Amino acid sequence: MIDLQNTILEMIAKGESLADTINRLCLEVERIVPDAICSVLRVDSHGCLRSLAAPSLPAEYSAMIDGMVIGPNAGSCGTAAWLGGEVAVQDVATDPRWHDFKNLVLPLGLKACWSSPVFGAHDRPIATFAFYYREKRGPLPIEREMVDRCVHLCAIALDRHRRVLEHERRAYTDALTGLANRAAFNIALPDLDCTSPGAWALCLVDLDNLKVVNDTFGHQAGDILLKEVGDRLAAAAVPDKVFRIGGDEFAVVVRSSSALRDIDRTVEAYLEALVPTADCDGKIVGPRATIGLAVLSDGDRTAERVRQNADFALYHAKETRRGGYVRYWPGIGTRMTRRLTAIREVDAALREGRIEPFYQPIILFETGEIVGLEALCRMRIGDRVVPASSFHDATTDASVAAALTGQIVAQVARDVRMWLDMGIPFQHVGINVSSVDFHNGSIYSVLAENFERERVPLKHVILEVTESVYMDDDAGVVRQSMAALREKGLKIALDDFGTGYASLTHLMSVPVDIIKIDKSFVDSIVDNGPSAAIIEGIVGIARRLGIRVVAEGIEERSQVRQLLGLGCVLGQGYLYSQAVGASEAGEMMLKFAQGLDVVKARSKG
Question: Where are the beta strands (DSSP E) in 91-180?
Answer without folding.
Answer: 112-119, 125-133
